[in-house]
Design a protein that fits this description.
Oligomer: single chain
Radius of gyration: 22 Å
Number of helices: 10
């Protein structure tokens, strides 16, 4: 057993093993990206029905009980073609390879399968291999993989729905604090301060913007994502994260308005840019911060 573990942990092998694992995880991330917003919507609808039902004063006028909805989560029902309902077989669910062999079309109805599916799978694999090469075999590499996978899922969901689910951001925050009890990425004191400061930084911007303009400039999910980044990287990385995410967001926003005629009043999700900046901070934050500070010292 120890010999097998030593072979897997070898620097020439470990990234490739992680790449293969990342492909499988990337396939699951596609499920998360597609289903989690629908699960949230179903939950909200059920809560609304319960609240409306609990507000009835006359039992005789209460609506009839709703039939129990079919199970719908990240595992049930099985994956199927959205066009014809064809169940995806095991051979049709091999990451990247199946999409290429099917030429991006359903085997039953020939409807197009979005190229985003293999892209997400490849991103999951590259994220795992990159983490393995950067940190080597150990908790830092596995922690970085989880961080990147969560950012990938949250970013695509935010692009689609302008939502950053608590079921991703909050566990990510707590996991960062847990890892840093052992000082994996920073010390626990910096992680705790980073989580608090990250949340309050964007919370303050949100309320200042709302007081000045009467509009909401961002969602609460952005506060929680920056808090999670602070928990992973420490408070020292927050200025760098905010500057980089703002720069990327501004550049993308201007490009969308100029080249894609994106309306100024159409919301642009900020989560993906925060996530990208958080990845930079996790992998190169200390070096970039030292270089930045050295220019002014």
């Amino acid at each position: 057993m120890s010999g097998t573990l030593s072979a897997v942990a070898h620097p020439a092998v470990f990234p490739w093993v992680c790449f293969a694992i990342g492909l499988v995880v990337g396939s699951f991330l596609n499920v998360v990206i597609h289903r989690l917003p629908k699960m949230m919507e179903r939950s909200w609808r059920e809560e609304c029905v319960e609240l409306l039902g609990s507000g009835e004063t006359d039992r005789s006028s209460a609506p009839p009980p709703r039939p129990k909805s079919e199970r719908f989560d990240l595992f049930v029902p099985g994956s199927s073609c959205p066009a014809c309902g064809h169940g995806i077989t095991a051979l049709e669910n091999i990451p990247i390879l199946s999409w290429a062999m099917l030429r991006g079309r359903c085997s039953a109805c020939k409807a197009r399968i979005s190229a985003r599916y293999p892209v997400v799978e490849l991103l999951g694999a590259v994220a795992a291999a990159w983490s393995a090469m950067r940190f080597g075999f150990g908790p830092a590499a596995f922690g970085a993989m989880v961080f990147l996978w969560c950012v990938i899922a949250a970013s695509f969901i935010d692009f689609d729905t302008q939502l950053l689910p608590d079921s991703i951001t909050l566990p990510l925050l707590w996991l960062g604090l847990l890892l840093n009890t052992a000082g994996v990425f920073t010390d626990l004191r910096s992680a705790v301060i980073g989580a608090v400061a990250g949340y309050l930084a964007l919370w303050s911007v949100y309320w200042l913007f709302k007081l000045v303009t009467g509009k909401e400039g961002m969602g609460y999910g952005d506060f929680k994502l920056l808090a999670a980044i602070g928990a992973w990287c420490g408070w020292q990385a927050l200025p760098l994260t905010i500057v980089i995410s703002s720069f990327i967001g501004a550049a993308v926003g201007i490009a969308l308005m100029v080249f894609a005629r994106h309306g100024r009043n159409v919301p642009i999700p900020f989560g993906p840019y925060l996530g990208a900046a958080g990845i930079i901070a996790l992998f190169w934050g200390p070096q970039l911060t030292r270089q930045y500070v050295s220019q002014f010292m």
